[in-house]
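// run 5 | inverse folding | seed 20
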């Protein structure tokens, strides 16, 4: 379930919800498995655009010798926020995936710094018909 918020700005201070951000990232990255509609891509892009400024602000505020963020990557992520969602399906899909990866990197930095990191593996595809069940003896 996506948490819809207006796009954050440098002056906006929403609490960072790691679980909601993780869910949005998972949804965006699953678009590679299905053909989303333009509306789905636009909605997910809007949510990611709300999460990224919050995480960017935290990364910049927390920069320190123990876990220094890559300043070039932070700058690239910030510049990428200014890029509008592509008009074609392929470009829109690529933009959403890149924003999801940016958000994923920022969230990993944020949670590692706060000792909250939890691995969230993606969905496991079902076994093909006739395949032995997991853990079954051969």
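// decoded
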């Amino acid at each position: 379930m996506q948490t819809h918020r207006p796009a954050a700005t440098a002056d906006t201070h929403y609490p960072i919800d790691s679980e909601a951000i993780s869910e949005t990232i998972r949804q965006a990255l699953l678009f590679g498995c299905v053909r989303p509609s333009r509306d789905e891509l636009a909605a997910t892009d809007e949510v990611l655009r709300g999460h990224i400024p919050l995480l960017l602000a935290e990364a910049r505020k927390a920069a320190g010798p123990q876990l220094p963020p890559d300043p070039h990557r932070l700058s690239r992520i910030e510049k990428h926020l200014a890029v509008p969602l592509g008009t074609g399906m392929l470009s829109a899909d690529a933009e959403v995936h890149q924003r999801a990866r940016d958000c994923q990197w920022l969230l990993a930095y944020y949670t590692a710094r706060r000792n909250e990191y939890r691995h969230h593996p993606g969905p496991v595809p079902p076994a093909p018909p006739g395949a032995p069940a997991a853990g079954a003896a051969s």
